[in-house]
Specification:
The chain has 166 residues and is mainly α. It has two domains: 49 residues, no CATH class; 105 residues, Ribosomal protein L11/L12, C-terminal domain (Arc Repressor Mutant, subunit A, Orthogonal Bundle), CATH 1.10.10. Helix content is 48%, strand content 11%. The strands form two sheets. Strands 1-2 form a two-stranded antiparallel sheet. Strands 3-4 form a two-stranded parallel sheet. A hairpin with a 5-residue loop joins strand 1 and strand 2. Helix 2 runs antiparallel to helix 3, helix 2 packs across helix 4 and helix 3 packs across helix 4. The protein is globular and about 55 Å long. 14% of the residues are buried. Component of the mitochondrial ribosome large subunit (39S) which comprises a 16S rRNA and about 50 distinct proteins. This is Large ribosomal subunit protein uL11m.
């Protein structure tokens, strides 16, 4: 659900004097079937008569790729580090979903798959033909340990930086 009433300064459409309650109700109705926490790129066009057009796109490609790989975050060093794996079938299914997006509706599935391969690479996700569930489970367990170490190192760097600036 959306809670825009507490944050009106973040949204330019509220400076156009549109009905905030109607906007929130419309947005909530259109996103009622979406799981909370899913990022939804949204475009709002406000007309001069204070009406608006609301276009809600599919979640970003990186979101779908990370969900398919079963990971919560991408690699810190994408080219050198593999944080997840997906199959070609996953890639094809994501491309079919992304083809429904207005910016991509005129692109072929091949072009969308090429775009997804590049996005997967920047996220540190490897694309494979087949994936063994047990082997991938072991990979994710080891990956979880690596992520914890990376988080610890980042926290130490932040603390060291805070000490220098204080």
């Amino acid at each position: 659900m959306i809670s825009l009433i507490n944050q009106p300064q973040k949204f330019a459409e509220f400076q156009r004097n549109i009905n905030i309650a109607a906007f929130c109700k419309d947005f909530n109705e259109r996103t009622a079937n979406i799981k909370p926490g899913v990022p939804l790129p949204t475009r709002v066009k406000v007309n001069s008569d204070r009406s608006y057009q609301l276009v809600i796109h599919q979640p970003p490609a990186s979101y779908f790729l990370k969900q398919a790989a079963g990971i919560s975050r991408g690699a810190m060093e994408p080219v050198r580090e593999i944080c997840g794996k997906i199959t070609l079938k996953h890639l094809y299914e994501i491309a079919k979903i992304k083809q429904q997006d207005p910016p991509l509706e005129w692109k072929s599935l091949e072009e969308i798959c090429t775009m997804l391969v590049a996005t997967a690479r920047t996220c540190g996700i490897e694309i494979v033909k087949e994936l063994d569930a047990k082997e991938y489970g072991d990979f994710l367990a080891e990956r979880k340990k690596i992520v914890e170490e990376q988080k610890k190192l980042l926290q130490e760097k932040r603390e060291a930086k805070m000490l220098r600036t204080a």
